[in-house]
Amino acid sequence: MTLVEAEEGDRLIVTVVAGEEITWQALRFGIDEGAEISLQKKIPGGPVIITKNQLEIAIGRQLAASIQVSLKPEERYP
């Protein structure tokens, strides 16, 4: 699933960042394959808000749609 398809509250592991340009954009936020992130909020028609190492980051939908993630095993919180 992509970061856009994940649900608020999900704890995730980044599995694939598609494309060289997208990879560079994601790396600016410290997001690369294997990174552990949490999805905090999805703004309708706007950015996706994640946390990584206690830092909140707003990621544009186009970038978020290019980042493949998987759920961290048994780590979903309300």
What level of helicity do the residues show? 10-25%
Specify Rg, calculated over alpha carbons: 11 Å
CATH top level label: Mainly Beta
Domain count: the total is 1
Q: How much of the sequence is in beta strands?
A: 35-45%
Give a description of the structure.
The protein is α+β, with helices and mostly antiparallel strands and 78 residues long. The protein has 2 helices and 5 strands; from the N terminus they run βαβββαβ. The protein has one domain (10-76): Ferrous iron transport protein A (FeoA) (SH3 type barrels). Helix content is 17%, strand content 45%. The protein has a 5-stranded antiparallel sheet. Strand 3 and strand 4 form a beta hairpin. It starts with 9 loop residues before the first strand and ends with a strand. 24% of the residues are buried. The mean pLDDT is 89.
List keywords for this structure.
alpha+beta; SH3 type barrels; five-stranded antiparallel sheet; 2 helices; globular
What order do the helices and strands come in, and which of them pair?
Layout lengths: L9 E8 L2 H9 L7 E7 L5 E5 L2 E5 L1 H4 L2 E10 L2
In short:
This protein is an alpha+beta fold. It has a single domain, classed as Ferrous iron transport protein A (FeoA) (SH3 type barrels, Roll), CATH 2.30.30.90.
